[in-house]
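Protein folding task:
====================
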Amino acid sequence: MDSRDAFVHGERSLGAEAQQWLQSLPGTAYATDSAWWLGEVRFVADSISTLSHRSAADHASQPELWLAQVAETERWPLLEQLQQAMTRGDSAVRLSYVIERRDGSQCAVDDSVSIQRDASGAVEALVGLLQASPVAAAKDGPPLQSLLDHGGDIIMALDEDLDCHYVAGNTQETLGVTTASLLSASLFALMAPEDGSRIRRLLVEGGAEAGSPMVELRLRHRDGGYRWFEIHFSPYPLPLGPPEEPSVMPGWVAIARDITRRRQQSLQWNAYTATDELTSALNREPFMGLLRHAFASADAGARFTLIVFDVDHFSDINQAWGREGGDLVLSCIGEMCRATLRERFSFGRLGDDSFALLMSGKSLQETAAIAEKLRGRFASTRVEFHGHWLSFSVSLGIAERRGGELAEAMLARAEAGMQDAKQHGRDRVQQAL
């Protein structure tokens, strides 16, 4: 199905969901037939009243009211400019003009028009976005951009690769970055590795069906951690680039809401219940839940590898240096694993001194190299403890997920590899069978 079908149905009307999201766009959206405001108005957002001081119902029933507010000397050049764009086969045109309201006040308007065509190239609909120019906004009240930037949600216009072409909202608070730093950046680059392939698949399916998927995912904060977001993607047929550039099709309007607190409360995945306080690793059950979720939501060909390890002779460390000395060793392990993986939710503590690292998209050879690097770092680490230097080593087992393998089975194989490493002298990496 063509993406424009989400906005203009075969019966020449707009679907309820499309109307809902057109109402929420940052500006005033409208849809007409090929005659623009001289023909049939199929949709106009309620916010048009802030521009014209007339209700959306008035404009829907009397389309000519909008053009009547444009000075006649300016009206015909506008119609000619639009007609030329349609005749040339353009997919978009941007118009700028001034309307005069009933009370005599004026409003400067920027009008971005997307020209919708059928298979033969004939114009069948015009979808536009009206916005007051900065000068007009300053006279009538707070600038629209200022209002958006102080809102709780983040509004983005994205192309099919999820590169941001427009961003508004308080990104400084939610992600720790400015809106400017997100422009031309890909939303995929901010996602947790486990979420990227799932979201890509959902958007491909949503684009094919002209749907509006709602997803929950994690986006990276500037502090290195992740925040949970609920994002509603809706097809976006309007031009994203400068007037001289063609429309970017398909695209998305994405409205993102930070649901980290809600997610933590509903799933109890917060720092006190899901995460080990000493190492900042996920406790065993939350880690296994993450493992199962990653397997269930990934593409059939997605690659997952697992590193499982524990501390060699940990009971001897506790006996020689007490619980405090053992805890210091475990804390050091947590810091080094987090620095290596950069994602604490893929790092789990399975027992007193045993841990697991989930790798996404890595081959078994790549994972073996990471495991060997960790082994070397642990073996060369000296931890100061009351004037003494503690040393330790670890034994590691690695496994790659087999087709359709369950989380428990893969973990058991990796643990078996770890036991083999211990039987072969400890302080080594062993691949699972």
